[in-house]
Amino acid sequence: MGRGGKLAGGLWRVGLYIRLSRDDGREESLSVQNQRKILLDYLEHEFQGQWELAGIYVDDGLTGTDDSRESFQRMIGDMKAGKLNCIVCKTLSRAFRNYADQGYFLEEVFPRYRTRFISLGSPRVDSFLDPEAVQMGLEIPINGILNDRYAAKTSADVRRTLDMKRRRGEFIGSFAPYGYDKDPADRNTLIPDPEAAAVVARVFEWYVQGVGKGTIASRLNGLGLPNPTAYKAGKGSRYRRPGPANDGLWTPATVARMLQNPVYAGTLVQGRQRVVSYKVHQTMAVPPEDWYVVEGTHVPLVPPALFQRAQELAQRETRRAPGQRTLHLFAGFLRCADCGKSMSRKTARGIVYYTCSTYRRKSKTACTKHTIREDRLRSQVAQALGVQPEALSRRLLFEQVREILVHEDGEVTVCPLPAEGASSV
What we know:
five-stranded mixed beta sheet, Rossmann fold, Hect, E3 ligase catalytic domain fold, DNA strand exchange activity, SSR_resolvase, DNA_bind_recombinase_dom
């Protein structure tokens, strides 16, 4: 019997597992093609024809510190389905750098499904020819611990390097935001993409002119402009947003995300999320005070004053009480003349009032009530605007606020607004 070993009643149905880590770079000795050649040469020499190839499972550019890799999971599924009974990889670290998972698969899963596992590196592992080394030996567990610790150290080093880049205002994302490209001379610097940058500027200009996000999305779709995901795909990018398949159309939510993104004013905000640990690759939110915010890192696509106007208008457009589905007429528009805080809406005996939120929620001595009935306020505002009270609307108020904001410094040109039915505001 050759060293490959014979399986009673048939052939070894072999699955080759190959993983190319991002850390490998372009080293040919570690490439997918090279790993495949090494494994196939081993089978040809050692198994003496007593095998058939059931599949080649490749995870390209993924970490080995968890077992959620797509091809790895597919291989395990095929093993459980009886499609293969032997797994071969180049080294233990290609399959596992997580010590707990290494023990789980070698000592529990593979024996349960009577699957032979072979690793060609040091230490050499063959659970069929030397099962005691796998089940009771020390070398393999020790090697797993060393791989695990190496992965932990590498993860910590990478995190420190990325945090340093974030502090310096270097862009570290895999894909540039819509409207930008990565500078070919410095991949950590953003430069404008002229075609998409013009769309970004147009979106901001329309919005401060009073055009609603829904109307903006409809206009962009009407012009045949692909949304950010489709645009990047059209330029050859592998970028994909999670969720349902993207149809290439703009939506109000897409427009809203753009209007809220400070990158378009020349400010990088990074570090909003972190992975839980080098073993648990789920992300968790980071408190805003711990974000990395660096201004002036790249060329803005919109003037900072225009970006700020858009933020002010958005606050007035969308404010509502927590859990409140209805956006009331004056929501976001009313401020106390003394303390400058918002006016709080309440209802008593069927009558709606607005009261200073500082007085109502914080301190009875910090300000006074400044209570006013909503019906009386509506009449007074309508009279000031020269309209009937029943004609008063959030759109009309929004127009007035927009014109006041625009005229404060004269930097934004006021253009005619679309017809009443054309906006979602």
